[in-house]
C-alpha cells in the first residue's frame, strides 16, 4: 500500500492495534447490513408555499422522519450548488496538503484530527481525518494561513448551514406543542456550534475497517453535505442501512439533545461510515449545539431523562470514552425506573463530541 505524503499514518496506528498486547474488543452482535436505501426525501419549498396545507404537510414530513428514522434528506434547502461546489473544491485542496503541515501548522485553530487516539482495539478505530472548527473561528483570518480563498467560502457555507439548522429546529420544537420555537435561537450561538470537514482516504487493506466508528451525535441536530462516493450507514430496525447518495440533497439527523428534549419522540440514531477500497470520500457536517451551561429538560412529561446541562453531558461522554473507549450517552441520564434495557444498545466510541 503506497501512502501519499498528504495522508495521515493511519496504517501504522491501525497496525499497533493488531499486536498481541492490544486490548480485545467484542464485536456487536445481531447487526447485518441491508441493501442500499433511500432516506425520506423532503422538498423544503413546501415551507414557503402560499398554501397553508402544503406548509403544514412539509413540516409534518420533517417531524415524522425525525421520529421514525432520525434521519432525512432535504432538497431546495437554500444552499446553492455553486457554493457547495466551491466549498468542496477548497476542502479537497486543504486535505491534499502534506500531513506534517496539517498536523503542526495550526491550521483552522489547530483543529486537525486523524484516526482515533483513544482506540484500544481495531473496531474503535476510524480510518479518517478531519478539521473540527468552531463557528467563532470560521471567519478568523489568522486560522487559514496560505488558504486565503477557503475563508470566504467557508464563512458563507457555515452561515447558510446555521440558518437551515435553526429553521429545521424551530419546526421540530413547534411540533412538540409548547410554543417555544424561539428557544433554539436563545441557547445556540457560534461559541458551541461547529463545522467538521471530513476526509476518508481509500482503505484497501480490509473492508471491516470503518471510516467513522458507530456513534450518535451529541448535539440538537446535524446537517451533512456529502459527495457521491457513499459510505454512510445508519441503524434501522437493528440493521445497518446503507444511505444512497443524492447529489441535490443534504442529510439531516437528530442528535442526543433533541431526543432528550422530545422525551424520545425524535430519535438520535446510531450511524457510521464504511471505508472504500479504491476511492476517497469527502463530507462536511454542521453541528447545532447549545451554550455549555444550557439546561436540557424534556418538554414532554413525565420525563424519562433527568435534567442536565450540555457541559455535564459532554463531560460524561468524554469521561466514558477516556475510561472505556466508548460513548454511552443518553442512557447515563435516564431517571430511575426508566427501562434502560431498551435504550442501551452496544456502546459506541464518540466521534463528534
From TrEMBL:
PANTHER family the record matches: 2-OXOGLUTARATE (2OG) AND FE(II)-DEPENDENT OXYGENASE SUPERFAMILY PROTEIN-RELATED
Ranges where the Fe2OG dioxygenase domain occurs: 189-290
Highest taxon in the source lineage: Eukaryota
Protein name: Fe2OG dioxygenase domain-containing protein
Organism, scientific name: Hibiscus sabdariffa
Assigned protein family: Belongs to the iron/ascorbate-dependent oxidoreductase family.
Keywords, in A-Z order: Iron, Metal-binding, Oxidoreductase
PROSITE patterns for this protein: FE2OG_OXY
InterPro entries recorded: DIOX_N, IPNS-like_FE2OG_OXY, IPNS-like_sf, Iron_ascorbate_oxido_reductase, Oxoglu/Fe-dep_dioxygenase_dom
Gene3D superfamilies: B-lactam Antibiotic, Isopenicillin N Synthase, Chain
Amino acid at each position: 500500500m503506497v501512502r501519499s505524503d498528504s495522508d495521515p499514518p493511519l496504517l501504522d496506528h491501525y497496525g499497533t492495534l493488531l499486536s498481541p498486547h492490544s486490548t480485545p474488543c467484542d464485536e456487536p452482535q445481531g447487526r447485518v447490513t441491508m441493501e442500499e436505501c433511500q432516506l425520506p426525501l423532503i422538498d423544503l419549498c413546501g415551507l414557503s408555499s402560499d398554501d397553508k396545507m402544503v406548509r403544514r404537510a412539509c413540516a409534518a414530513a420533517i417531524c415524522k422522519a425525525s421520529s421514525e428514522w432520525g434521519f432525512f434528506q432535504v432538497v431546495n434547502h437554500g444552499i446553492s450548488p455553486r457554493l457547495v461546489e466551491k466549498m468542496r473544491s477548497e476542502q479537497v485542496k486543504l486535505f491534499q496538503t502534506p500531513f506534517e503541515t496539517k498536523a503542526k501548522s495550526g491550521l483552522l485553530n489547530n483543529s486537525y484530527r486523524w484516526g482515533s487516539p483513544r482506540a484500544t482495539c481495531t473496531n474503535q478505530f476510524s480510518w479518517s481525518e478531519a478539521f473540527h472548527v468552531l463557528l467563532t473561528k470560521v471567519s478568523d483570518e489568522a486560522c487559514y494561513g496560505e488558504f486565503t480563498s477557503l475563508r470566504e467560502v467557508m464563512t458563507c457555507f457555515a452561515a447558510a448551514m446555521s440558518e437551515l439548522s435553526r429553521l429545521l429546529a424551530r419546526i421540530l420544537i413547534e411540533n412538540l406543542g409548547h410554543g417555544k420555537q424561539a428557544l433554539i435561537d436563545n441557547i445556540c450561538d457560534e461559541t458551541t456550534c461547529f463545522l467538521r470537514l471530513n476526509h476518508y482516504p481509500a482503505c484497501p487493506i480490509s473492508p471491516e475497517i470503518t471510516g467513522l466508528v458507530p456513534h450518535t451525535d451529541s448535539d440538537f441536530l446535524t446537517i451533512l453535505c456529502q459527495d457521491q462516493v457513499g459510505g454512510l450507514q445508519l441503524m434501522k430496525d437493528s440493521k445497518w442501512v446503507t444511505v444512497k447518495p443524492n447529489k441535490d440533497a443534504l442529510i439531516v439527523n437528530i442528535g442526543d439533545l433533541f431526543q432528550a428534549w422530545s422525551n424520545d419522540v425524535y430519535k438520535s440514531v446510531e450511524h457510521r461510515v464504511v471505508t472504500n477500497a479504491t476511492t476517497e470520500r469527502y463530507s462536511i457536517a454542521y453541528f447545532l449545539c447549545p451554550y455549555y451551561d444550557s439546561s436540557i429538560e424534556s418538554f414532554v412529561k413525565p420525563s424519562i431523562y433527568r435534567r442536565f446541562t450540555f457541559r455535564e453531558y459532554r463531560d460524561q461522554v468524554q469521561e466514558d470514552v477516556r475510561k472505556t473507549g466508548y460513548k454511552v450517552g443518553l442512557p447515563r441520564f435516564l431517571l430511575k425506573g426508566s427501562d434502560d434495557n431498551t435504550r442501551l444498545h452496544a456502546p459506541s466510541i464518540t466521534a463528534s463530541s
